[in-house]
Amino acid sequence: MIHTLLGAEKFRAGSDLYFERHDGQAVTCDDFVAAMANASGVDLTIFKRWYAQAGTPRLTATISHDAIRQQATLTLSQVVPPTPSQPVKQPMTLPIRMALFNRETGTSTGESLVVLETDSATLTFDGFSEPPVLSINRDFSAPVVLDTNRSEADLAFLAAVDDDPFARYEAMQQLMIDTLVGAVSTGKANHTAVVESVGDTLADTTLDPAFVGEAVGLPSEAFIGDQMLVVDPDAIAVAREALRSALATAHLARWRAIYAENGDRAFKYSPAAKGARRIRNVALTYIIAADPAEGAQLAFDQFAAADNMTDRLAALTALANSDAEQRVPALDIFYQRYRDNALVLDKWFTAQAMATRSDTVDAVIALERHPDFTLANPNRFRALVGAFGVNQRWLHSIDGRGYAFFANQIIALDPVNAQTAAKMVPSLGRWRRFDSERQALMLAALERILATPGLSKDVFEQVSKSLA
User: Fold this and answer.
1) CA distances (Å), 290 to each of 242, 258, 432, in order?
2) What residues have CB less than 8 Å from 4, skipping those under 6 apart?
3) Strands 71-79 and 120-126
4) Is 0.85 topped by the overall pTM?
5) Percent over 70 (pLDDT), the chain
6) For residue 370, what are the contacts with CB-CB under 8 A and spacing of at least 6?
7) Whole-angstrom Cα distance, residue 31 to residue 8?
8) How many angstroms separate the CA atoms of 320 and 354, rounded?
9) Which H/E stretch holds residue 402?
10) 3-state secondary structure 38-80
């Protein structure tokens, strides 16, 4: 953000002054900011609130249009949510890169930087006979939670033409989020806009394959849940799989082509090769969704022939989520090959703990009894129990078995590694975000942990805060 505020030349001057003053010293954030301010002549007093206030600002950006005056008006407002030790917050310095696009030509009038240091601000832009489309927080210029009044059509437009990769990615992801949240809320889904936008992205040969691979991937179930007042894990899973199926079926020929075009290459550690692996593995997940038998065979063949862990693990993960007959052989082969490599074997545990299969809770319970699982290895515990703790679909299984297993593991680990055990508690501590039935189950699990004799101070504090 400081680089954005000052520009490259002044930031470099600030860096030079910082090293001139402090090379070899123990320094503070204040020293760094002071060097930047002194060298550039820019007052960074308000910016220093980033170091003093907790929480992520929420930025609301509303665009309106006056056809008579041919003006576009952008209204920005920020709120920094209260936190336990800071109920009242002051406005932060938010450097916001933005551009306004012409819907007909697909071009913008150029990027501009708006610095918001107050609660709100209004800006007007002349020369717009038609409503422009807002591209905002370009290049991730400020770490904020962004709310806008952009329509589905606006997001689809930006997903197709925005010349800023971050803003383009965000538009696609927001379009997907809006579609999925709408499907969960209403029980009805209209996938048309997302299907068309993904098609446009796949057809654009000027885009970096690595970018395409990220842009067309679905938001995680946990991230979708973060956008909702009350999380419904079952409905989220159904909606997400329905959108995946729609995208897979509509673009199956293109997914097959992408998979074929980016295969049969020896491993290289280069941006181009990494991008090819990324888009190919995304294509594989969509092929499996459209044609499970074909996809499973492709995944197993990739798993067997892979000359790098990225491709082998991507194929294993795809199979671990499936009902394919190749699933068990692949898991067995991976285990036998890497059983003596602790870090790689952790990935084997995680792939199963994060699986979307309906028997995941049973599988995780069985893996806890596996000879290679041990409470004495924090990495192994995180690989299985920690991974299951972020598996929104099955930790929150409505029968309560996921909560019971998770609480049992926290209790078992506490005497061995209290700090790691305490870090697991927040997965249960988010009970307020869920429906009343799940709330009751999560509270019961927390209370059972709290009632455990000899509970460590670390876990006691985390559970107590969660119950407060």
Assistant:
1) 11, 15, 36
2) 95, 97, 113, 139, 141
3) antiparallel
4) yes
5) 100
6) none
7) 19
8) 9
9) helix 401-413
10) HHHCCCCCHHHHHHHCCCCCEEEEEEEEECCCCEEEEEEEEEC
